[in-house]
Structures are given as structure tokens and as C-alpha cells.
Write a structure and sequence with these properties.
The chain is α/β, with parallel strands linked by helices. The chain folds into 2 domains: 7-258, Aldolase class I (TIM Barrel, Alpha-Beta Barrel), CATH 3.20.20; 309-386, Arc Repressor Mutant, subunit A (Orthogonal Bundle). Helix content is 40%, strand content 23%. Strands 7-8-6-5-4-3-2-1-9 form a 9-stranded mixed sheet, sandwiched between helices. The chain has a 3-stranded antiparallel sheet with strand order 10-11-12, with no helix packed on it. Strands 13-15-14 form a 3-stranded antiparallel sheet. Strand 1, helix 1 and strand 2 (60-68) form a beta-alpha-beta unit. The longest helix has 17 residues, at 219-235. The protein binds iron/sulfur cluster (SF4). Iron/sulfur cluster binds at residues 20, 23-24, 27, 29, 31, 68-70, 103, 126.
Length: 386
């Protein structure tokens, strides 16, 4: 991967905007559908931002990521006011990446222009599919025509556009999935995220599947669709740089890559996570997953905070590195283990199963291995005495 600067010098910023028009049947994210709370939420967000950034005076921010929920649902002026609060305390790197996650139904021409005027540099569009039938099955609120229109308008305005696609929807065939991929490619977007529809606990979709009302393609069919995406996108010059993410050179998601590389990031808003590296210490924290509690006390939003032990740092490094095409240095892995022979034997076995490969002293997962990245990582964790 091109961007290999020192991770310790970077600070990223995530802002969780917890509003959606409706909850999609498969979604378990933290969000609410009461739009009347937007105004109060943003007052709380400004407070939290001012309070926490007062400790980071002078820091330069490498990327800002508005996630959700649906950040494109809120007025641009609310985001503008957030930047005003933000810029009183910290500055933006000259080449900062500012990404907003957006749903097609929110992206009117005026909205796209407003986001560009605000300084947004990258749009990540939750298209999920360009096919009318699949959009209906997924219960999405936009049409296939809208998805095409906003993707091409966003491309004309930003050039740096990502689309999310889901595979494994009810009744989806490999042929339909290929058609979806070809339409996405025809839009010329330089970044595509591919997600396999997962049955998250306590979602409407999980209940429908359990009752036998909905049947999804099985794991094997999903794996075949995923492999097809890898093959088609790589043939078109996309680098498969993370389990679910494909990018043309130079268009990686800087914020997401920062998280996987364990660079520091500050998360604002309910349920947002933070990770800070300083002086050899690594601290993970999370804000409260309740909008009511968040708005009542934005100064006190943190509900969990933990300094990682050395062992936890090693485990995270193994897990996150193996999600990336940049992989893990064999020397690092050996350094983490007491017995080199045991871990080398595991590496040999995983290579034999077609899950790992090694080149120039770096271990990476294969295309097949990407599907099992977490399981592969588990096998490579050091065994510790209780
Ligand atoms: S729009 Fe996105 S965040 Fe909102 S409910 Fe649907 S999948 Fe979840």
C-alpha cells in the first residue's frame, strides 16, 4: 500500500450521527429514527467536541469521518457548525480527508453541492445495490435510478467516491450479483466496499429467517459471490486492501485504514469508540450507547475506558494486520511467540490450506483466507499460561 507514514503521528476523528429515516431489517447499528432530536443532539455534540478537543490544542487532524446512522440526513449547516467548534481547538492537515457516509435518497444536487462547499472530500454512498428487485428485498428507501444518478453526480463533484454493495440478499443469484458489480464499475467509482449480508442478533431479518419467512443464500453461495467480486474488481485494477474493501491506487479510506493500522482516533457522539496511542500506552474507550444519556451529559459521555495490556496489544495487531493486504511481518509474529517452531508449523499448515501466503518476510491472507481472516488470526495468537 502506498501510504506508509508513521502511525504515531496521526490523529483521526470519527463523528457518529445516529439518525436514520427507518431501521433496515438487517441493521444492528446504534441509531434512532426520531428526527426531532437532531437539534438537541447537535448541541450536545458541539459540547462534547469542545470539551474533548481542548486537550488536543494544536493537533493536526489527518481524517474526519462522519458515520452513522445516516449523516447525509442532517442539514449541512449542522455539520458546518460542528466544524466551527472543531477548528477553534485543532487544525486540519493540508491534505485532510473528510468523508461522509450518505444514502442516495438524501443526495439532492443541492446537498451534494452543499457538502462540497463544506469541504467534504470523499463520499461513501450506501447504495447496497443498483438492481430494483434487490433494493426492494433489502427494504432500502432509494430506487435503482436514484442510486445511479447520485453516484454519477457525486463522481462529477468529488471524484473520490465509494459505494457499498451487499451480496447474499434473499433470492440473489450469482448472475444478478455480477450485474450489480458491473453497474458499479460502469459508474467509474475508485472505491467499492463489498459486504456479505450477515444475520445480526435481534434484527428483524434474524426473526424473519428464524420463522422461515425469509431464506438467504447459504454460506457457500455467499462465498462464491465474494470470490466473484474479488476476481472482477481486481481485474479492473482495484486493490483488495482489506477484507471488504477494494480501491484504485490512492483512493483507500484513510480513516478506516488508520483504524486497522491502529493509529489514534477520537470518536464523538453516542456509541463512538476512541483509540489513543501515547508514550507506549494504548487506550481504548467508548461513549455511552444511549442518545438520551448522551444528550443529558455530553461532558461525561464515556462509559468504558481500558488501557490495553501488552498481550492485548499483540493480539489486536495480529487480528487487524491480517485483515489488510499489507499483512504482518513474520519477524514480528516470531517475536510475539515463545516457541518459533510451533508458530512456524501453524503458518506452514495455514499456507497448505491455501489461507496464507508469504512474500519478502510478510505474511498475508490469500483471497480464500480473507473470508476467514479472524479464524486465521486466532490460530496465530500466542498461547499464554493462565
Ligand atoms: S440506512 Fe444504514 S445505518 Fe441506517 S438502518 Fe439502514 S443500514 Fe442501518
Amino acid at each position: 500500500m502506498a501510504d506508509q507514514e508513521d502511525s504515531m503521528t496521526k490523529l483521526h476523528c470519527y463523528v457518529h450521527i445516529p439518525f436514520c429515516r427507518e431501521r433496515c431489517s438487517y441493521c444492528d447499528f446504534f441509531l434512532v429514527t426520531k428526527q426531532e432530536l437532531q437539534y438537541r443532539f447537535f448541541r450536545a455534540l458541539y459540547e462534547e467536541t469542545a470539551e474533548r478537543f481542548s486537550a488536543y490544542g494544536g493537533s493536526a487532524i489527518h481524517s474526519v469521518h462522519f458515520g452513522g446512522g445516516t449523516p447525509s440526513l442532517v442539514p449541512v449547516s449542522y455539520l458546518e457548525d460542528w466544524f466551527e467548534t472543531f477548528s477553534r481547538h485543532v487544525s486540519l492537515n493540508n491534505d485532510v480527508e473528510i468523508t461522509i457516509e450518505a444514502n442516495p435518497e438524501d443526495l439532492s444536487t443541492e446537498k451534494i453541492q452543499g457538502l462540497a462547499a463544506l469541504g467534504v472530500t470523499r463520499i461513501s454512498i450506501g447504495v447496497q445495490s443498483f438492481l430494483p428487485e434487490k433494493l426492494r428485498t433489502l427494504g432500502r428507501l432509494h430506487t435503482a435510478e436514484e442510486a445511479l444518478r447520485v453516484t454519477s453526480e457525486a463522481m462529477a463533484m468529488f471524484g473520490n467516491v465509494s459505494v457499498d454493495l451487499i451480496c447474499g440478499a434473499e433470492g440473489e443469484t450469482l448472475e444478478a450479483w455480477e450485474r450489480d458489480l458491473h453497474i458499479a464499475l460502469s459508474c467509474g467509482v475508485p472505491h467499492i466496499s463489498v459486504y456479505m449480508l450477515a444475520l445480526e442478533k435481534r434484527t428483524r431479518l434474524e426473526r424473519l429467517v428464524k420463522r422461515g419467512i425469509v431464506t438467504l443464500p447459504n454460506e457457500h453461495a455467499q462465498a462464491v459471490m465474494y470470490a466473484k467480486a474479488c476476481e472482477l474488481l481486481e481485474a479492473q485494477g482495484f486493490e483488495h486492501y482489506e477484507v471488504s474493501n477494494f480501491s484504485k491506487p490512492g483512493f483507500f479510506s484513510r480513516y478506516n485504514l488508520g483504524c486497522w493500522r491502529r493509529e489514534s482516533y477520537l470518536g464523538f457522539g453516542p456509541s463512538a469508540h476512541s483509540f489513543l496511542v501515547s508514550g507506549g500506552h494504548e487506550v481504548r474507550s467508548a461513549n455511552v450507547s444511549s442518545l438520551v444519556r448522551y444528550m443529558a451529559s455530553p461532558h461525561n459521555a464515556q462509559e468504558y475506558c481500558e488501557m490495553l495490556s501488552e498481550e492485548e496489544q499483540i493480539d489486536e495487531k495480529i487480528f487487524l494486520s491480517l485483515r489488510l493486504s499489507s499483512g504482518l511481518e513474520l519477524d514480528d509474529l516470531l517475536h510475539f511467540h515463545e516457541s518459533n517452531s510451533a508458530v512456524l508449523e501453524t503458518v506452514r499448515r495455514l499456507k497448505g490450506q491455501g489461507l496464507l501466503k508469504m512474500r519478502d518476510g510478510v505474511i498475508t491472507v490469500t483471497r480464500k483466507g480473507f473470508l476467514f481472516a479472524d479464524k486465521v488470526a486466532e490460530e496465530l495468537l500466542p498461547v499464554r499460561k493462565q
